[in-house]
TrEMBL record:
The keyword Oxidoreductase applies. Keywords: FAD, Flavoprotein, Oxidoreductase. GO terms for molecular function: acyl-CoA dehydrogenase activity; flavin adenine dinucleotide binding. Residues 125-220 form the Acyl-CoA oxidase/dehydrogenase middle domain. Residues 251-393 form the Acyl-CoA dehydrogenase/oxidase C-terminal domain. This is Acyl-CoA dehydrogenase. Belongs to the acyl-CoA dehydrogenase family. Gene3D superfamilies: Acyl-CoA dehydrogenase/oxidase, N-terminal domain (1.10.540.10), Butyryl-CoA Dehydrogenase, subunit A, domain 2 (2.40.110.10), Butyryl-CoA Dehydrogenase, subunit A, domain 3 (1.20.140.10). It comes from the Bacteria. Its cofactor is FAD. Pfam families: Acyl-CoA_dh_1 (PF00441), Acyl-CoA_dh_M (PF02770), Acyl-CoA_dh_N (PF02771).
Amino acid sequence: MTFELTLTGAQHELVRRAHTFAEDVIRPVSAKYDKLEECPWDIVDEAAGQGFYNALFYADLIADPTGLSLPLFLEEIFWGCAGIGLTIVLPALALSSLNQAGTPDQIAQWAPEMFGTPGDIKLAALAVSEPQGGSDVAHLQTRAVRDGDDWVLDGTKIWIGNGGIADVTIVNAVVDPDLGTKGQALFVVPKNTPGMTQVRKLTKLGHRASHTAELAFEGCRIPGENLLGGVDKLEHKLAKAREGGETRSGALGTFEQTRPMVAAMALGVARAAFEYACQYAAEREAFGGPIIDNQGVAFPLADIGADIDAARLLCWRASWMAASGVPFRMSEGSMSKLKASEVAVRATEQAVQVLGGWGYVDDHPVEKWYRDAKLYTIFEGTSEIQRMVIGRTLPGATAEGPLHHHLPGDHDGLSRRFGHGSLARARAGEVFLKMAEKAPGALLELGGRLASPGR
Ligand SMILES: Cc1cc2nc3c(=O)[nH]c(=O)nc-3n(C[C@H](O)[C@H](O)[C@H](O)COP(=O)(O)OP(=O)(O)OC[C@H]3O[C@@H](n4cnc5c(N)ncnc54)[C@H](O)[C@@H]3O)c2cc1C
């Protein structure tokens, strides 16, 4: 599938439906849930009613060969409200781990339990981060120890979206501490499993409609079949890791796949703030005219507009690469998340600035967007970690040249031989220039026209 900026009919319709939902259903209650700091159950139920909250919907978006459907959807929903948006998509993040690490039977069993149905909404969580460190995933401490047919989990997880209220929690735990990320595995812990408790709900700067908690696992016993992928696969993976072979961590694989999704979320918030600030600046008058007539107001907004579009292109490129199986040579997924998250922070800060005092109070939504945006430079890998990941690829990737040098061409022999910039066209040009000295102008013009289309 080639990279295309032109949306399909289905994608246009998806954007329209998601935007209408964000504008009519999410935005009117966004400030309310931000203040209440409560899970927006009714909005999630409404999302389910509209088909935006079930495992097959996400499977369908992920299966889109262009890769664009999922970021398109996310940008619109997060344009509505980041906190409510996160509540709606958190099960999809957990589902992504389930899909990567689980067997077909496990996926069939647990995926429906992560979303429920309209009128019977369920939630899911992905629990990786721990109090002693979220970035350094090689040193996680939550242990999973085999006991007969069961596994027993002990440890603490923190900043877990839907933690403690999720029907299904996917927990990353260490099975062999000597192997770093290769010694980790994912486990399904259903709600109300004895030994899993919510220590506390966390009070946050932004994304306040999304429930975030600290979880404790104390002798938390789960059946053997809740190990994602099964014990044979785990033992094979551990044996390979002990021999020094290449293996994948389920949770880390998920991070790589989900980073462009986080970029799309950040873009939704950035765009909301940018649009609001531009409208405000066009209407607000000072010194006898709209404030946008001042370069001091218009230029930073122009920069933000360009940066949002650049970040969206990075996000779409990474999503297209993931869908097309193009290898991430320079961590293009991390690049998209890095750029989109940082532009979201700048866009929302600029929006507060453009609104002046009105930007600082909650009469307008920009102060909320400012608080919401900051999360994107922190979760799913901080900006520093994105730079670290990109930085590691630099010597190899830059030696090999940019990505487009490595993408396959369209194998169209005619285009290669006679398309724009081909040697044949260069030679033809030389001939025409020689003819120009002898032939009449009209004949030359006709020749030039005949030569020009060549697509
Ligand atoms: C609202 C919210 C929701 C979240 N949701 C989830 C969730 O659902 N599930 C989940 O598992 N986790 C979740 N997280 C956790 C999140 O992914 C972590 O907070 C994040 O990975 C950073 O980890 P940390 O907070 O421990 O920071 P640390 O790892 O302690 O880092 C602290 C600072 O040091 C910097 N740093 C660390 N190492 C390096 C280095 N080598 N070079 C340069 N700088 C470095 C970091 O960039 C950061 O600025 C959530 C976090 C928040 C705030």
